[in-house]
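Lecture 7 notes: from sequence to structure.

We start with a single chain of 438 residues. Read the sequence below before looking at the structure.
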Amino acid sequence: MPYLGKKPFKKPGSRPPYAGAPKTYGKPKAYTPAGGRPKPYVASGDRARPYTAEGSRASSYSAPRARTASSTGGYGPKKDFKPWTKSNTTAGVKPWSKPYTADSNRARPAANVHKDVKPSWVRKPAGERDLNTKWPKPSFKDDANKPSWQKPYIASGDRATPSAAKPATAKIETGWGGVAQWYHDTVEEKGSYQKDLILPNLLRLMDVQPKEAILDLACGEGFFSRRFNRLGAKVTASDISKELIEIGRRDKDAVGVEFQVAPADAIPFVIDASMDKAVIVLALQNIENVPGVFKECARVLKPAGKLYFVINHPAFRIPKQSSWGWAPAKSDDRGAGEEGTVQYRRVDRYISELREKIAMHPSALRQAQGEQAQGETTVSFHRPMQYFVKALKKNGFAVTGMEEWSSDRKSQPGPRAEAENRARIEIPMFMFIEARKL
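Now the structure, written as tokens:
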């Protein structure tokens, strides 16, 4: 209405209308009863409705309105829901200790609740356990006494059938600990292949430098490890035979060499990428897990590190499948001896992998020591050359060198001496491989 120049009605002692009054739209303020606290709100539909307060505690409240699927997209609490009190529960049992059963999408109290019901975490005596008790699975010492549902199964057609129990695989003993002292004496004596043939060639090809980290796997009694140590290298040596390792540790030239008792395919004491070179001499033919050995070598070698190994020549030294023989010489045969014969190397098998049990002692020593020495055997493995090349490639190596070494021994003078010496030169007994880590 237009302003008439009159002041609005004002009650004595009061403030002007709406002067500083807060806006009232939006959520209503909580009502504070006399002598009480502000009343809280609960959701009821889209608006909040206050409790009925009495003093400072609520004696009752308005139950929330049940939601329907059409309004909320789901189902809310039931209309007859009541809060827990001692008066409206069965025999005063608290709701969180009552067993529940599934009812559609919600759980409701079971019908058989009685006064003695205990919480689910309370263990009942043995005589009171029900059928729902989870018993521990029985344990059996062998598969033969196991029930059918605990035996291993294999697929057969569209159904699974019990599989036959596999026998435990016996560990193959390939160590030389039983003849440790004999082995040490044989290697160290003058004229041994290790001292006169393999060591000079190995040092020539390895070019050992001072402070180089060298790993000698399957080192035996440390014959080569001690030589590397003399040249100033930092040597770590391991062998599966503790007897041979003890002999190596006692040697005066072994000061500074770290000896470990371990198989060649498991050397956790060597950290990754810590070795400059690794060497395995005349041992791979007595190791079953050759790929595992190459894998460990790849792990411990530095980038571009080198692996060297010497083995019995796989083409000419095959356990129980190769031997020396004599044949009449032809008219144009230059290798014939004085009696007109030539020595040849007979090879019956090569490409197939073999596993053979062989005697540790040479025949002469067995005859001297009797039947007891004949029982000392080990297992030797034959693999063709392609086996080693493939295993190296698979484990990240590239073959960078190969040599074949012939025996330098000479026969005593005699009618067959010339033929024997010629055969030793022409038919190599050892093979050397150099591989570089890619």
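Residues 177-437 form a domain with the Rossmann fold fold (CATH 3.40.50.150). Keep this in mind for problem set 3.
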